[in-house]
Specification:
The complex is a heterodimer of chains A (355) and B (362). By secondary structure, chain A is α/β, with parallel strands linked by helices. Chain A has 11 helices and 12 strands. In chain A, helix 2 packs across helix 9. Chain B is globular and about 80 Å long. Chain B folds into 2 domains: 80 residues, no CATH class; 223 residues, no CATH class. Chain B has a two-stranded antiparallel ribbon with strand order 1-2. Chain B has 14 helices and 2 strands. By secondary structure, chain B is mainly α. The longest helix of chain B is centred in the last third of the chain and has 28 residues. Classes of the chains: A alpha/beta (355), B mainly alpha (362).
Chain lengths: 355, 362
């Protein structure tokens, strides 16, 4: 009976509004575990950076490993109902769930990563990861002796396909006959499959490995064979200290801090942000384990892309079948074309799955 | 002194009822200790976990939404398991049901199709699930293949079929090539019971299924046949019951229920077809079926209870900031204790004094 009373008291305490309600409560929904050292890990780093920057003005909560199905809507709504005013949902598969909850809670602010549906209170944001991929292509073509790059791909959505294309276009500026072998893992996070794919690619003659999956397994596997590789989402240098060339780092901290600040000041509006090397939402890890001339070329390429001088998809872009892609952005493909890309460029010897 | 398990002369009804309760009690105890180690007040934590979701109507509704597919699938599985038929592939039947029903939704998209769409989708969903479940059943009856393996492997086939469709022919043409169909039209959507809530009429259908299963199992010859074939196959043969036909029957019924759950989930809470429509409902339902003692009413309670652990787990993550893994640990511990306590039904625990100990006491 006493226990029951205790429990009831605990419940009452919970039901009472917490003191210091002035703090902005920020919620995060992650698709993977925060320990994946990849996508979700980087969002968690972004959250921590925001907490550090804004100190006691904000309070934050995260839900990890939320499945991209009907459960997502409930998870988001749980955050909405527990006093979170600004909610970030950090995977494409949360799009419709976020839209539904945002419509239901018009006074809260929502932000969805990598999607394209917006509302008055739902902003979107993503990184121009293809910019980093172009640089990787340049480096890979320089480093490869066999002329074959190994590419571990996740799910055939436009972001991944445009990444393959940007890599190929970058590599072709160095070696017009470069080849790429692609293995589709079909998942974002499956260290076992990713490692197997890396092994298979190396066995098939690829002598530089790149990946669009979320774990460090590929870098680790390549390191064991002494094969150079690129990290993904986070700096994976500790998994391949002698073999990682660079990594595309998703740098969400500044964005999260800025958006939370706007929310605190009452100036938050629904926007569409697609940040790249220029705005530092995409950052390259230090260029390591490569000769100086390659390093200089990589740094130069990075500077040119960041300043806008060079666009990875500058026209003319030639598709796999030899046709020239319509140039909607003047001198380069426009954002809509990149966001909806579902064809390979010339030189990629593979078929887009499901097409 | 030592503990021994002694076979009982017959199943203990008291133990059958007490066993899940003891299991839940032991689970709560272990969880309290775990919370203590994590530096959280165990009572407060358990209150957040198990009582808070029961105190507001939103969480209650969400609980029912989550429990609906679990109960529906669990009932079908119970029919199989009672007949000693092992359908492990409800997850695949769920997916194929969702796909079969969605066919109509995709094909009638944007047309002025009438209100017949949703009922027809539900029928197609159930039919799809049933036909898919008949594959392992026929393999067993005709070729003596293990229905456990065949039904399990067909889960992966189903997932790939779904994957193919949403990435290929059924992909939303305005969806930037992302793998999902367009949102279903209102006539192809399962209506809510309460405006603005996710609670949909599928929950009522689950209740009907529970009542129907309870009647069939308790009041009809078919129910008797299922029990006899499961408990005493030889006696069943003497009684003229056809075991093969029962395999086909139970698989078809459980497949139909899983398929129905699938199309309801897709046309209800999800609203379109996409990969990953089930976070493992077909497998979790196996736990639900056994936790509910293969009894329809028990399964209803077990489904709600498991749903509670999901909702409570989320609330614990939010308000106590404990990791998600704790929810998983919790479900694992629960299943472990349920299975362990089950031995109490067929065995009794006795304390036996060894001679040495007895001498020492003397």
């Amino acid at each position: 009976m006493r226990k029951l009373l205790f429990a009831a008291a605990a419940l009452l305490a919970l039901a009472a509004p917490a003191a210091a309600e002035d703090k902005l409560k920020v919620g995060f929904i992650y698709v993977g575990p925060i320990g994946d050292f990849g996508w979700s890990y980087q969002h968690e780093q972004g959250r921590l950076a925001m907490m550090k920057a804004l100190g006691d003005k904000v309070d934050s909560t995260y839900l990890e490993k939320v499945p991209e199905g009907p459960d997502a809507e409930r998870a988001i709504e749980q955050l909405a109902r527990s006093g979170h005013k600004l909610i970030f949902t950090t995977s494409f598969g949360f799009m419709d769930a976020t839209v539904k909850v945002a419509k239901k809670y018009p006074n809260l602010m929502f932000e969805h990563a990598t999607g394209y549906k917006r509302e008055k209170n739902l902003a979107t944001y993503s990184g121009r990861f293809y910019e980093g991929r172009y640089i990787q292509g340049v480096i890979a073509a320089k480093m490869s002796k066999s002329g074959v790059m190994g590419y571990i791909a996740s799910v055939p959505i436009p972001e991944v396909i445009s990444g393959i294309n940007a890599t190929m276009i970058g590599a072709q500026t160095v070696n017009p006959n470069i080849k790429v072998k692609i293995i589709w893992v079909g998942e974002w996070f499956n260290p076992g499959k990713e490692a197997d794919a890396a092994k298979a690619l190396i066995d098939q003659g690829a002598d530089v490995i790149m990946q669009h999956t979320d774990s460090a397994a590929a870098v680790e596997t390549a390191a064991k064979r002494g094969i150079p590789a690129f990290g993904q989402d986070s700096d994976m240098i500790k998994f391949g200290p002698k073999t990682q060339l660079t990594a595309i780092i998703d740098n969400w901290g500044p964005y999260y801090t800025e958006r939370a600040k706007l929310a605190l000041d009452g100036k938050w509006t629904s926007t569409d942000t697609w940040g790249g090397l220029g705005s530092k939402m995409v950052v390259m890890a230090p260029y390591t384990n490569m000769p100086d001339d390659v390093k200089n070329l990589a740094e130069d390429t990075e500077a040119q892309i960041a300043s806008g001088k060079l666009h990875p998809f500058k026209c003319p872009v030639v598709a796999q079948d030899g046709s020239t892609v319509e140039c909607k952005g003047g001198t380069h493909l426009d954002d809509g074309q990149i966001l909806g890309m579902n064809y390979y460029v010339k030189g990629v010897d593979d078929k887009v799955p499901g097409k | 002194m030592r503990l021994v398990l002694e076979p009982r002369a017959e199943r203990s009804t008291a133990a059958a009822i007490a066993s899940p309760l003891i299991a839940v009690g032991l689970t709560l105890l272990v969880m309290s200790i775990l919370f203590g180690f994590l530096g959280k007040d165990p009572l407060n934590a358990l209150a957040v976990y198990f009582l808070q979701p029961l105190t507001d109507s939103y969480s209650l509704q969400e609980m029912v939404v989550k429990a609906t597919p679990l109960v529906m699938i669990g009932i079908g599985l119970a029919l199989c398991y009672l007949a000693n038929v092992w359908n492990i592939g409800a997850e695949g039947q769920f997916v194929i049901g969702a796909v079969a029903g969605s066919y109509l939704a995709v094909k009638t998209q944007g047309t002025d199709a009438g209100t017949w769409v949703l009922p027809a989708m539900l029928v197609l969903g159930a039919l799809g699930g049933a036909l898919y479940a008949l594959i392992p059943a026929i393999c067993r009856v005709r070729f003596g293949a293990s229905e456990i393996l065949v039904s399990l492997m067909l889960v992966y086939v189903a997932d790939l079929v779904l994957d193919y469709l949403v990435r290929g022919p059924w992909r939303d043409p305005h969806g930037y090539n992302f793998p999902t169909t367009a949102d279903f039209d209102p006539v192809a959507t399962v209506p809510s019971i309460i405006e603005g809530s996710r609670l949909h009429i599928g929950a009522l259908m689950a209740l009907v299924v529970v009542a129907a299963a309870w009647t069939v199992l308790g009041r009809t010859i078919k129910g008797f046949e299922i029990r006899v074939v499961g408990a005493a196959p030889k006696a069943a043969r003497f009684a003229g019951f056809d075991a093969d036909r029962l395999v086909l029957f139970t698989f078809a019924v459980s497949g139909a229920l899983a398929g129905l759950a699938g199309i309801i989930e897709v046309a209800g809470p999800v609203g379109h077809l996409q990969p990953g429509i089930s976070p493992g409902y077909g497998f979790t339902a196996i736990i639900v079926a056994f936790l509910g003692r293969l009894n329809p009413i028990g399964i209803l309670i077990a489904g709600l209870f498991l749903a509670l652990t999901f909702i409570g787990g989320e609330q614990a993550q939010i308000s106590l900031k404990v990791p998600l893994d704790l929810t998983k640990v919790f479900q694992g511990i629960l299943l472990f204790f349920v299975l362990a306590c089950d031995s109490l039904i067929l065995y009794r625990v006795r304390l036996i004094r060894t001679r040495k100990a007895a001498d020492a006491v003397a």
